[in-house]
Design goal:
heterodimer, A: 292 residues, mainly beta, Immunoglobulin-like, 4 helices, 18 strands, B: 688 residues, Maltoporin, Chain A
Chain lengths: 292, 688
């Protein structure tokens, strides 16, 4: 009987030693909107397409750390979904007024346990501020082994450069194309800032460049019909699809995809994949619309 | 210095390999004469089995270098054990016969399945090697007796039966990376005149500071050590009514808390808590008409909570999310066998099993909340005929019918963002589906002479999809896995020829060649999409046909009464020969080799047991293998040397040192992580 008691006691000790670390802190965070000439205020009338700066400061207030800041338009479209982990945040965000006559901007701050605080801004439309776009209807890039078509291009001029020319114009180059099965990238457009190594050979290869522009690409949040891209005359569609979390590569390209991008200088644009043809010696053809 | 240490160790082995007055001998019975294999469902004598069978006996278990149970399996031909971070790995992958995935190996504990219905895998850490009496390994498909999971083989772990009225052991350990631990084991046997109770209770605890798995050149400030803290307990209570009838209840519990090596903002970084519970009951009797009857029932409950934080390469996207997953398995296995004559035996039975899983992913740095769940049920009946048409030939014919149903499967997501890649909140209820399968096996063994026998077998295996593959869209090591509720069962047909040759009482040769053809083979396929910027999207699909052929050969040589040598070699060629899955990138996997299968494996073991010192030295060679399905990344070959030295002193005390990876070889695993290097464990135990 004594032996059973020993075993039971040991088991009991083990069970109490392995409880999950769960917080019972139920204090919600506090969110404040910054006030001043630089920031948008509630009930403001503003032209569609105009840039709006929202300034927020938030505190955990003794509760769990803040983890998520969400900005939504009209309670549906997520304009910003920012993840972090801190006791406070003080940040400014830039968004654009949409085409609605009344746009409700909801700002919500969540802490780690899901408790939140929120503020709603109501904005009225007053005229239009959309601008025309820069349009490159066809840019054809060659793979890294393509000897006749260059692999590099610039959003500044829409021109295609071979490796040697690109190396001498590093500040102009925003994107490059290659094919690789490594990490299942396949047909891939990347920015020089993506640290591409082992694809292009020689002393002029991008890994040795002193200036490497970083272009961010996003497809996950871009959901645009091809016709909307083709018919866009101003930057409204670009502004409506501005993203906050991009990658430095657009991987596994296939025809009729639309990718969003943001240049090193902060301008946003859209890229349509017209066709993809082949492997290391193949080509990719794209159309580009970007903000002026 | 490193070389000097090795020289000293080898010199010690040589000096002590001259036995003086040996207390015991190693592997007294390398031919395992008279040993019965419980994994055959009817306690078959090993020499009568028409399959490739290996048994690791208690004497070997006690002497092999081993820090986790699955380390013991490395000594068996054609078993590939991958526990790349040693004791700091969350789990181990154990595969056989050129097929990837632990879910294709049926793992039994005293004849009761440990594979979970949710993912098909096994928590090897729930087994403490100290409690194991023997390990039986039957290679090749055995779905004709066991149904799903038994595609490439069966591993049956048999726990020990206490012999003394009351006994106990206790021990402490200290190991590399500031690893400490202890174990206590109590047991009793009150059987008198074949009637009475026996029981045991074991507890094991271990914790370690771990190491950083990222190589020094790629390390950044977010990489931290793989800390580990684990406990396991194991209780058994049995009552023997008479020589043939007994009932037993067994409860195993395992809990661990591990860090996954990344710490960004959270106090403890990314963490994982695991809780595994297995409750088993076993009733065995012999009816008056000489029918052996066994009933086994089991209940598994597993729960894990994972707290994950990640920062992307550019440092501007941070994610924090929790995963809660629970799963249950409940089953009843019944079988009876009767020997009608010395030449004819019939075994038949029925199996019932049901399993479910439910998992929730709650993102803290975004609003996404996903729930995935599903259930599956199995019912099966089988029969096996064993007969000897002539004196030297034994024929075994088995047939099993399985019915499986998937139901109540669903996936839902609330408030999704770019993090999970879903456009809007939605609920998808998966349609239920049913499958049936007929799994035959026909094998024959020809005893050419007392020294030589040969066997041939044909078998067909069957494995339905796991709940996790059908219901779970979630992040995995390889990328982001999409649920595939339409995944169908896979089938493997195999032909095998093997033989045993015993030229004298000290030497045993065993070899086997086999060919397997898998149809509707379940395999990961990249869809061509990326999620969360750079995570590859994969889905388990029925890709088509695979061809696997190979051979295994082993030799055991009892050099003296105190020294046994073992060696084995394995070759596997596992190739996709037909690829029907369609994906966006159009990458055809036809002609590719199955990932994570080394074509060549080689093992050498030397076991010495003397009065002064017990020593076991093992060498494991693993050849190059593909790390990914596209065969774009190859893992380098590696050879590891392990050593265990132990000595009993003052009658009650045992001291041991285990050295794994003696040469401190640094190699990269399939996930790109560093192996832990040389790992030294010191054990001190006492018996009472």
């Amino acid at each position: 009987m004594r032996n059973y008691s020993i075993v039971s006691f040991i088991t009991f000790l083990f069970f109490i030693a392995c409880s999950k670390d769960e917080s019972d802190n139920k204090i919600p965070p506090i969110l404040h909107l910054k006030i001043g000439n630089s920031y948008i205020a509630n009930d403001t009338a503003i032209a569609e397409g105009s840039q709006i700066t929202i300034g927020i400061s938030a505190l955990a207030n003794g509760g769990e750390n803040l983890c998520n800041l969400v900005i939504k338009s009209n309670n549906s479209l997520s304009l910003l979904d920012f993840g972090f982990n801190a006791a406070s945040i003080d940040k400014d965000f830039v968004i654009h007024k949409n085409t609605d006559s009344i746009q409700k901007i909801s700002i919500i701050i969540y802490n780690k346990t899901g408790l939140c605080d929120s503020i709603v801004l109501k904005l009225y439309k007053n005229g239009s501020a959309y601008k025309a776009v820069i349009y490159y209807p066809s840019i054809t890039l060659g793979g890294q082994n393509n000897t006749s078509i260059g692999s590099f291009s610039s959003f500044s001029n829409g021109l295609v450069y071979n490796l040697n020319d690109a190396s001498t114009n590093q500040a102009l180059i925003d994107l490059l194309y290659y094919y690789s099965v490594t990490n299942q990238e396949y047909n891939c457009i990347a920015s020089p800032g993506a640290n591409i190594t082992g694809i292009f050979s020689g002393a002029n290869a991008p890994e040795f460049w002193s200036v490497k522009n970083t272009t961010y690409f996003s497809r996950t949040v871009i959901n645009i019909p091809l016709s909307s891209f083709d018919n866009a005359l101003n930057d409204s569609i670009i502004i409506a699809n501005i993203f906050s979390n991009g990658g430095r590569k657009a991987k596994a390209l296939t025809a009729n995809q639309i990718w969003g991008f943001q240049t090193q200088t902060g301008k946003f644009g859209l890229m349509k994949i017209i066709n993809v043809n082949g492997l290391e010696s193949g080509t990719v053809q794209i159309a580009v619309k970007l903000q002026q | 210095m490193k070389v000097k240490v090795l020289h000293i160790i080898f010199a010690l082995i040589l000096v002590y390999s001259v036995p003086l007055h040996a207390q015991d001998t190693v592997s007294k019975n390398i031919f395992l004469k008279g040993i019965t294999v419980n994994a055959s469902r009817n306690n078959e004598n090993i020499s009568n089995m028409a399959s490739s069978v290996d048994v690791i006996a208690k004497s070997d278990i006690d002497n092999y270098p081993c820090t986790s149970f699955d380390d013991l399996l490395q000594s068996i031909a054609n078993v590939y054990v991958n526990r790349s971070s040693g004791i700091f790995s969350r789990n181990s992958s154990v595969t056989m016969r050129g097929m990837d995935g632990t879910n294709r190996v049926l793992v039994l504990y005293n004849g009761i399945p440990l594979n979970k219905t949710s993912g098909g895998g096994v928590n090897w850490d729930i087994i403490d090697p100290e409690t194991v009496e023997k390990i039986e390994v039957i290679k090749g498909s055995n779905s004709a007796l066991y149904g799903n999971n038994a595609m490439s083989g069966i591993i049956n772990i048999v726990s020990r039966t206490p012999k003394e009225k009351f006994a106990g052991t206790a021990g402490i350990l200290y190991a590399t990376y500031n690893t400490t631990g202890g174990r206590i084991s109590l047991s009793g046997n009150q059987i008198m005149n074949n009637k009475g109770w026996y029981w045991y209770a074991n507890a094991f605890y271990r914790k370690g500071d771990g190491y950083i798995i990222v190589s020094e050149t790629s390390r950044d400030s977010n990489d931290t050590k793989l800390k580990m803290n684990e406990i396991s307990t194991d209780f058994k209570l049995a009552y023997q009514f008479n020589e043939n009838t007994r009932i037993s209840v067994n409860y195993n519990f395992y809990h661990d808390k591990r860090s996954d090596g990344i710490k960004i903002f959270e106090t403890d970084g990314s963490l994982l808590y695991d809780y595994s519970n297995v409750l088993m009951a076993d009733f065995t009797t012999v009816f008056k008409n000489n029918i052996d009857f066994q009933a086994k029932t089991f209940y598994h409950y597993d729960y894990f909570w994972q707290h994950t934080e990640r920062l992307n390469e550019t440092g501007d996207v941070y994610k924090l999310y929790d995963t809660d997953q629970s799963s249950h398995d409940l089953g009843l296995w019944l079988n009876a066998s009767k020997r009608f004559s010395p030449l004819y035996k019939l075994t038949a039975g029925m199996d019932f099993k049901t399993g479910d899983m439910k998992a929730e992913d709650t993102y803290r740095t975004s609003t996404d909340h996903a729930i995935r769940q599903g259930k599956i049920g199995f019912i099966a009946a089988f029969a096996e005929n064993e007969f000897q048409p002539v004196k030297n030939i034994k024929i075994i014919a088995s047939l099993r019918f399985d019915f499986a149903q998937f139901f109540d499967g669903s996936f839902s997501i609330d408030n999704p963002t770019y993090t999970t890649g879903f456009a809007t909140s939605y609920v998808e209820n998966y349609p239920s589906s049913q499958w049936t399968s007929l799994s035959p096996k026909l094998s024959a063994k020809y005893f050419i002479n007392p020294k030589t026998d040969v066997f041939i077998s044909f078998s067909r295996g069957f494995m339905p999809a796991t709940l996790d593959d059908m219901c779970s869209s979630r992040k995995i090591t390889k990328g982001f896995k999409l649920a595939n509720p339409n995944l169908k069962p896979e089938y493997v047909s195999s032909v095998e020829i093997g033989n045993t040759y015993k030229p004298n009482n000290n030497l045993l040769f065993e070899s086997s060649v086999y060919y397997s053809r898998g149809t509707d083979f379940q395999y990961f396929v990249a869809t061509g999409e990326f999620i969360d910027i750079d995570k590859i999207v994969l889905r388990r699909e029925n890709i088509g046909k695979v061809n696997i052929y190979g051979l295994e050969t082993s030799v055991k040589y009892q050099l003296t009464n105190y020294l046994t040598l073992k060696a084995n070699y394995t070759y596997n060629n596992s190739e996709i020969v037909e690829f029907n899955a369609v994906n966006e990138t159009g990458v055809n996997l036809k002609g590719k080799y199955i990932a994570e299968i080394p074509p060549h494996q080689f093992f050498i073991g030397a076991l010495l047991k003397s009065k002064i010192l017990n020593a076991t030295f093992t060498l494991n060679y693993i050849s190059k293998q593909w790390a990914d399905e596209q065969n774009s990344t190859e893992l380098v070959e590696h050879t590891t040397l392990d050593l265990r030295l132990s000595r009993q002193f003052l009658k009650r005390f045992v001291a041991a040192v285990d050295i794994q990876n003696l040469t401190d070889l640094q190699y990269i695993d399939k996930k790109g992580g560093l192996a832990p290097g040389r790992f030294i464990e010191l054990d001190l135990g006492v018996k009472f």
